[in-house]
Amino acid sequence: SSLTSIQNRRSNIAKLPSVLFTSSNLSHLLSHPANMDVDEGNKKIRLMSKDDTVFEITAKEGKIAQLILDATDENDDEEAEIVIARVGPECLGKVVDFMKHYAVEKMKEIPTPLGGSTFNEVMDQEWYQNFVSDENLDRDMLFDLLTAANFMGIKPLLDLTCLKVTFQLTGKNAEEIRQILRLPELTPEEEAQAREDHKWIFEDS
């Protein structure tokens, strides 16, 4: 039914802060090898998006993605190719940009509690601020990145996008949240149910 569909979509969104604030629960998914020798770190990995666009990274750059680790774990070749059919070329390009930069400047852990009232207060590294800024990233791409980070097992990118979404939703009223998430308009009964099920979104509205 329409109500069930809306509740399911809101339920998925409502999980975002729990992913952010209990990201330690994902640690078992992101248990990378403790050591990677120089040759292995320079191994070339080709990532292919759903329209066959190819991006190249090194194993060192890709090691923050559990999907890449799993796909290359038993591959001793000098090069590897991984098809990521769920991710479009523009989004995958941004994921690659993130992984390449992370290999040079590691993103700080997002503290819990957050310790700031704005996104930039919590995330004080300029490159990462700019990466998900409203000027550089529209809302559709933000959610695409969040989905890609979850699918590929990239914990830092998942944390960053969840943090951005959290600040976008916090303090908004029901109509503003509906517009941000592009949900169909709720009936009074549906809104009341949403407020009961997902109080964290509406607590300040």
Structural write-up:
The protein is mainly alpha-helical and 205 residues long. The protein has 13 helices and three strands, in the order H-H-H-E-E-H-H-E-H-H-H-H-H-H-H-H. Strands 2-1-3 form a three-stranded mixed beta sheet. The longest helix is centred in the middle third of the chain and has 16 residues, at 89-104. The two termini are 27 Å apart.
Could you give the topology of this structure?
Elements: H1 2-14, H2 16-21, H3 38-41, E1 44-48, E2 54-58, H4 59-62, H5 66-72, E3 79-83, H6 89-104, H7 119-122, H8 126-131, H9 139-152, H10 155-169, H11 174-181, H12 188-197, H13 199-202
Parallel strand pairs: 1-3
Antiparallel strand pairs: 1-2
Helix pairs in contact: 6-9, 9-10
Give a quick rundown of the structure.
The chain contains 13 helices and three strands, in the order αααββααβαααααααα. The chain has helices at 2-14, 16-21, 38-41, 59-62, 66-72, 89-104, 119-122, 126-131, 139-152, 155-169, 174-181, 188-197, 199-202, and strands spanning 44-48, 54-58, 79-83.
Q: What attributes characterize this protein structure?
A:
205 residues; mainly alpha; three-stranded mixed β-sheet; 54% helix; globular
The number of distinct β-strands equals 3
Strand order of the largest sheet: 2-1-3
Q: What's the main sheet like? A: 3 strands, mixed
- Poorly predicted segments: 1-38
Helix content: 40-55%
What structural class results from the helix and strand content? mainly alpha
Shape: globular
Distance between the termini: 27 Å
User: Helix count, per DSSP?
Assistant: 13
Strand portion: 5-15%
- Could you report the average pLDDT, rounded to the nearest whole number? 79
Radius of gyration: 18 Å
Q: How would you spell out the order of helices and strands?
A: HHHEEHHEHHHHHHHH
